[in-house]
Amino acid sequence: MSILLAHFRGINRVGFVALVVASIGILLSVGATAQVSEEEHARHHPAQITPSPGTSPAQSPGPGMMEGMGEMMRGMHGTPPKELYPSLMSLPKLSPEQRTQVEQQADERIRTGNSLMAQAVDALAQGAASQDYAAMQDATTKLHEGMTQLESGISAKRALAEGRAPLDVALEWFRREMNLPISVAPASVGLLGNMQFHILVITILGAFAAVMIFMYFYKMRRAEHLLQALTGGEPSTPLARSAIPAPAAAIVAAPPVATAAPVSAAKKWSGKLRVGRIFQETPDVKTFRLMNSLGGALPFTYLPGQFLTVAVAPDGQLMKRSYTIASSPTQHDYAEIVVKHEDEGIVSGFLHNHVKEGDLLDFSGPSGFFTFTGRECKCILLIGGGVGITPLMSVLRYLTDRSWPGDIFLLYCIKTPRDIIFREELDYLQRRHPNLRVVITVSRPEGTDWKGPTGRITKELIVQAVPDVASRYVHICGPVPMMEVAKKMLIELGVPSGRMKTEAFGTALGKPEPILPKTPAAPSLGSEVSLPTVTFSASDKSAPLPPDKCILDVADEIGVEIDNSCRVGTCGTCRIKLLFGEVTMAVEDGLEPGDKERGMILACQAKATANVEVEA
Ligand SMILES: Cc1cc2nc3c(=O)[nH]c(=O)nc-3n(C[C@H](O)[C@H](O)[C@H](O)COP(=O)(O)OP(=O)(O)OC[C@H]3O[C@@H](n4cnc5c(N)ncnc54)[C@H](O)[C@@H]3O)c2cc1C
Ligand code: FES
Known about the structure:
This protein is an alpha/beta fold and 616 residues long. 39% of the residues lie in helices and 17% in strands. The protein is built from 17 helices and 17 strands. Helix 2 (13-34) runs antiparallel to helix 9 and helix 7 (133-162) packs antiparallel against helix 8 (166-177). The longest helix has 35 residues, at 196-230. The structure holds flavin-adenine dinucleotide and FE2/S2 (inorganic) cluster (FES). FE2/S2 (inorganic) cluster binds next to loops.
């Protein structure tokens, strides 16, 4: 049983059911076809009865055996007993004429049998008197032949008279011949022509298959529940609930982001992750290795280049920020985010200064479409600036982990040599992978021993480092001004804009627009008349929507809660449904394919010149 289970574990759900159904089908069909007519059976097994002198044929009679009996009689008697038993086998189908014929044959046998026996008795008496043992032996043989004739004739008469299945009559005769117990239970035939025994076997196997299917689905359901519990969702049972250990050092009182969704590459996940390790990469950059809060594999899967959104409450107020996963999806046990401590940055400062190994943090994701898996094209040019190397590093690690055969170029611009993130790893990977070329340029080399390229990324540097650049697929991530310049240069070098992907980590200005206190704005008299209005249907609130503000800004002002993170149109956290009107969005990266068709917009980007209504 356990072997079977282990075997079935390797079969997927559909395959398993198909296998069981197919097995039952085969069993049924085998059962059904196994119990064909006797004639059919005899046709398929003609050699089953092979009588030989002194040996007994198989016990179950059939036409083959009947022929065998004929042969036997033929051997023992000059006149073979004709085809009496074969005729009897088809007794139910016999016409009245044929029945009469059989009856006549039976009478003839009885007569012949009697006569043979009488002759034999006389011969036996004479032989005994003259002590002629050879004659006595002949007489005995004749006596036996007579008995046989008589017996078959009587059996035939009985079958005709009683209307019993000739098979039984023949079997009875045969058993008597062989000195076997005479009582023979009639073969009972049931459903679909199956014998009861077969039906019983099929029922047992069917029940076994049903138990297997039940166990399989039960196991899957149980595993799903456990997984949900492990990944921060509501445990399904008290057992699962108690299986979750208390956090070693919970650091924030941040409320849970949301209930955990089932684990799926396609679905977003949210829940707690444990900070397994913290690595100081450069003076102001730290890597946070995030792990399943209960150990084991990560509770989600992701693509190289996607990001997670962390929710923390540094000053008691919930704040969300997005951080790219820099590790490779080939690592199933952890995901690493690499955070630069921004000057006066609230969340990055909190992560750097307060979070320690073992802490649990609330995350959601993975999100984003700034991904590259190697299937898109045969070569890739990655251009990064500062901490913008994180998504590129995930791609690079993923491609080298998988020994991707295409060309990989990394152009990386950083302020000083000591700011180079992953310096040693990049050297190491480059040594091991001849298809990887890394060019680092330092924009402020003064006072350092940097011997490599200096200055920002230029057209010359690109041409020098990347042969045939126009044919490359390009991913750019870094400060917005740097990305804009890089894009312009690449277009001038012949790279179609459709082959370039960019990701911004923040606004061009660096600091997001200040969020005003959540008190209703007091619109001026003039603006009330001229400005369009945004209506938040779920909150039953409306407010003027100035042309320089997005819907998220107005929502913040009048106290309408809209989940948000990057506020630059990248993360997609602020997606809401537009119920009425039209909006424009400067950045739409956070929208998923099909979102627009479904009327979804990014509140942090949406601006309007006429009245709009949104679901929030
Ligand atoms: C998709 C995406 C992926 C990202 N991936 C990463 C990543 O991998 N690594 C990473 O480090 N970041 C990443 N970011 C950026 C990250 O989300 C945060 O924006 C960043 O960490 C800054 O957040 P903060 O709370 O620390 O700064 P905030 O408090 O939000 O401040 C933002 C900026 O304003 C400046 N600032 C704040 N207060 C002042 C002030 N009084 N005067 C002047 N300037 C001020 C800060 O220096 C900072 O640059 C990503 C962003 C996005 C959208
Ligand atoms: S908040 Fe990130 S897309 Fe709007």
